[in-house]
Amino acid sequence: MNITLVERLYEELLKIRLIEEEISYRYSEEKMRCPTHIAIGQEAAAVGVCASLNKNDYAVSGHRAHHHYIAKGGNIKKLIAEIYGKETGCSGGKGGSMHLIDTNVGFMGSTAIVAGTIPVGVGLSFSQKLKHSENITCIFFGDAAIEEGVFYESVNFAILKNLPVLFVCENNQFSCFTHLSERQPQNRKIFEMVSGLGIDSSECDGNDVIAVQEKTAQLVNKIKKGEGPKFLELHTYRWLEHCGPNYDDELGYRTINDIKKSRENDPIIILEKKYPELIKLKKHTILKNLKTLTKNAFKFAEESNFPNQEEAYENLYSEKL
Ligand SMILES: Cc1ncc(C[n+]2csc(CCOP(=O)(O)OP(=O)(O)O)c2C)c(N)n1
To answer: Is the pTM of this model over 0.85?
Structure first.
C-alpha cells in the first residue's frame, strides 16, 4: 500500500481517538450538555470508508457520528463548538453531538432517529443520479438500523433506480445493551440476509483500516461505473457505554472476554503492527500536531458565544407560532 495513504489513515485514526478521549475526559465539567455517543473502537470503519470517498461524495450518519464527520473532513473546531452548544458550531449550536453537518466536505447530516438518515441518503443519491453527477452517497448506520422498516424500503428503492449509493452497516453487535443474538435469529449474517433483497453485499473486518479502505475503494469504483448500490457490513466493537463518556464493563451485558478481545483488536494497534517502522518514525510528530489541533478546538469552543435567544426559532423545521 502507498505509504502516504498509510500515514494519512493512521493520522485520521489517531485524530478521532484523541478527540473522542478529550470529549470523554472533559464531559464531567458539564459544559457539554448534549448526549454524546462516543466512537472509540470504531474509528477504522469511518476512516477506511471515507478514505475511498472524495470531498464531493456525500455521507450521512446517525446518532454516533463524530468519527464519520471527522473522517469525511469535517471542521474540528465547529464539531467541538457544536457539542458545546455554541453559535460557531457546525449546526449553529442547536443540534449538538447527534446533529452534525458540514456541507463544505459533503457531510450532509446526522440525526438521532435510528435509520432516519437512510432514506435521506437515498434521496441524495437519487439527486446525484438525476444530475448525472460522478459522485456517490455513503450512508453510515449501525446494526440496529437493519431492524427498521425504512431500511428495506430504502434499499429496495436504491436497487429499483440503480442509485449510486453505498450502505455501510457498522456492526458493533449491540443496540444499546441488547446483543444481536437477542434481537435477530441465530446464525444470521446481516450482509447475507441483505443480499436476499437483490443488492450486492459483502462484509469486512471493520477494525482493519487497510482492509476497509481497500474493500470500499473496490465498491466505490463499481458504483461510480454505474453498477448500482452496494451494501457493506463492517465488524467492529464499541468500547465505551452506549451513550456517554464512561466505560460500562461492570454492567455485565458484555462478557469480559469480548471486552478483552476488542482491546486486542484496537484499530490503531492493528495498523501499528502492520507498519511498525513507518509509525515509529511518524507517531511523535503526528501526535504533537493532533494535540495542538484538539487543544485549539476546545479553546475555540469554550471562547465562542451561545446562540442569541432571538434566533432560537431560526433554521428549524417548524415555524414560530
Ligand atoms: C427509531 C428509534 N428507535 C429507538 C431509538 C433509541 N435508540 C437510540 S440509539 C439505539 C441503538 C442503536 O444501535 P445501532 O443502530 O446498532 O448503533 P450503535 O449505537 O450501536 O452505534 C436506540 C435503540 C431511536 N433513537 N430511534
So the answer is: yes
CA angle 12, 15, 21 (to 5 degrees): 140
Question: At 306, which amino acid appears?
Answer: F
Ligand 1 atom at shortest distance from the alpha carbon of 141: 15
- pLDDT tens-digit series, residues 113-160: 999 999 999 999 999 999 999 999 999 999 999 999 999 999 999 999
Give backbone dihedrals phi and psi of 7, rounded to 5 degrees, phi first: -60, -40
For the domain made up of 3-305, give the CATH fold: Rossmann fold (3.40.50)
Distance 180 CA to ligand 1 centre (A): 13
pLDDT tens-place string over residues 224-264: 999 999 999 999 999 999 999 999 999 999 999 999 999 99
Output the nine-digit C-alpha cell for 224: 461510480
- Give the residue among 269, 270, 201, 258 at the shortest CA–CA distance from 233: 201
How many whole angstroms separate alpha carbon 72 and alpha carbon 107? 7
